[in-house]
Amino acid sequence: MRTAPPVITFTPEPPPACGAKALAEVQNMVRACMQCGTCSGSCPNAFAMDLTPRQMWRMLLFGLAHEVLHSRTFWLCSACYSCTLRCPRGLPLTSAMAALKRLAAAEPDFASHRKALFYEEFMHNVEKRGRVRETELMLHYFAGMRDPLLPLKYTPLGLKLLRKGKLHLGGAPGAGRVSGLGPLFAKVRSMEAGT
Questions:
Q1: Stated pTM of the model
Q2: Which one of 1.10.1060.10, 3.40.50.10190, 3.10.20.90, 1.20.272.10 gives the CATH number of domain 13-107?
Q3: Which of the residues in the chain have pLDDT under 50?
């Protein structure tokens, strides 16, 4: 005689500290997701993500916000808009990724703070220079982390990059140039703020 399979139940975690309203907005962005996987197949960074975008959307809809906000998936989004452009439902997936970055940055835990700080310093570097200047980026990141031993963890990688010519300590071409991207970043900030 066959027995019925066990019923699996789960209790969704309470909304993150950043607020249920912001989380509900992200869930509404992806509510019509039909789990086709086009977003995951289109993402150039999916190979490095711990959750595929498709998994992440489903987890959000199931109320597993805590697990999603502690993943690295949305931090790896490069905002290339491939997922948004190819989504058969026309969902604003890149906007959802950006909203998750804002939600995670508001989380009080150290891991979220560390990831948010790196993302903020990266974007500030691009706004200021028009490109990423690795040395400046990492100096600002280390200063923001306020951990004097943290640079020692990255020393072997830094030396390897320096030997291969991938890291420039001084005068990389155009390194002192100030970018003209300030007005673009200001416009995006005003659009995100709804003004």
A1: 0.66
A2: 1.10.1060.10
A3: 7-15, 17
